[in-house]
Amino acid sequence: MKRVGILTSGGDAPGMNAAIRAVTRSAIYNSLEVIGFRRGYEGLLDGDVVPLSVSSVGGIIHRGGTMLRTARSERFIKPEGVREGLQRLKEYDIDALVVIGGDGSFRGAYDLHKLGFPVVGIPGTIDNDMAGTDCTIGFDTACNTALQCIEKLRDTASSHERLFLVEVMGRNAGFLALEAAVAAGAEHVLIPEVPFDMDALCKKLHYARERGKSHSLIIVAEGVMSASELQSRLKDTGGFDARIIVLGHIQRGGSPSSFDAVLASRLGGGAVDALLKGEFGTMVGRIAGQIVASPIQASWEDKKNLDSDMLALVDILGI
Ligand code: F6P
What we know:
Radius of gyration: 21 Å
Distance between the termini: 58 Å
Mean pLDDT: 97
Helix content: 40-55%
Bound molecules: 6-O-phosphono-beta-D-fructofuranose
CATH architecture of the largest domain: 3-Layer(aba) Sandwich
Oligomer: single chain
CATH class of the largest domain: Alpha Beta
Strand order of the largest sheet: 3-2-1-4-5-10-11
Number of strands: 11
Order of helices and strands: EHEHEHEHEHEHEHEHEHEEHH
């Protein structure tokens, strides 16, 4: 193996730059050349390349976003797109590809792997919805960003004795919502993994009011419903007057936390180790402190379970 390609794909996540740096420097340390593709699979198909060196990935470990940029590629979902991508990789003499992204990006990598091309994935998404790793790159930073915002909201919620609904990202998973809810001491959390019960929520809110609780925070994962839908349903069903805030893409920005910068650095090094050992078609993850390579398709085929104790804690602590 002589030359490795690298791309970031799908939604960006804090720590992706740290992962690019780690892959590039670990590969060069092992006498490999590194070529970056800009804008994910789109850049691969368009031949939008940038050679990466030790110095070109300097000064990025602490930066949010991704220096390679990213995209969601419609073209690469189709079999002809994947075949074209394979052709481009051959044209650029790339021997293996490292893909940093979420499960959508890994499906593309798996398609390349099925055509016989060596790939290794690094899980990078704020959603943390991938099996094969305890944590994805960006999740910790996004939780901290959500926490900072929610703490500010709590100040005004308590001054005005208001009910606030905070919509957080996470796609179809509730990891981000649950973590933020426990960290922020939210009174309630709604996540897609638990069936939503409007009457039960209204009962809890009424009960809290009767006990003299003047303000409450409800964290709602986007996979359940939007904060504005919840706002109108709470009004219609329970007569509650709630204010809403949608944290949105703020959660994807900012410098990576120390946890994410370290995770990204370890996974970047781990991805190059996997390539050198010939562990193709894998994703590197961190499980119980160890860097482990597992089949890339397990990241979406296996189920990553939410911690039910955490869920119970929101109820117990948010009384
Ligand atoms: O997968 C990361 C994520 O931020 C999800 O939480 C969210 O649903 C989605 O991406 C938003 O994607 P886009 O930026 O393309 O609207």
